[in-house]
Hints:
This protein has helices spanning about 10-25, 40-50, 65-75, 95, 115-130, 150-155, 170-175; strands at about 30-35, 55-60, 85, 105, 135-140, 155-160, 185-190. It is of the alpha/beta class. It is globular, with a radius of gyration of 16 Å. Keywords: Chromatin regulator, Cytoplasm, Developmental protein, Methyltransferase, Nucleus, S-adenosyl-L-methionine, Transferase.
Amino acid sequence: VLDSQYGMYVWPCAVVLGQYLWAHRRSLPGKRVLEIGAGVSLPGVVAAKCGAQVILSDSEELPRCLQSCRSSCLMNRLPHVPVLGLTWGRMSAELLSLAPVDIILGSDVFFDPKDFEDILTTIYFLLEKNPHAQFWTTYQVRSADWSIEALLHKWKLKNIHIPLHSFGADKEHLASSSLPGRHTIEMMIISLAQSDGT
């Protein structure tokens, strides 16, 4: 799959994150949600259908992904959901003027290690602006060598692992894929570490 096409598929991580949103649907009405790296936007669409005020985003350098976000909204009768071009690690007028958020969503954004720090830089900026907010993210375990632990520490962020069985997403039909390779999906919630050094 070419780089520019990553966002054109519903990956297993999106299904698992959608399941987490569905399991927490009663807490979503009125919440302000931003999905980063949205692609086909399954988690953001689920959040919007559950009553959240959603903004979808993907890289401003990937117009096909931004169009995919818009198409998903139209197909799901959500024509008023805004779609923004936000590139990880880049300060832009769109990022600086973003409305307050409660939840940031990201499914399978930790795909390429060269992007990890740019993603966490952007997340740190958003959490600093919205200290109560959380980043809900699912990711596929592709290599034991790929870790964000050091970057979380560097950016003063903490994470909590969310077991898939706790929201009924450990079923093979949810987290499986017809693509070759390992498809172990994990979920975590990232937030600002407290100033006391935790």
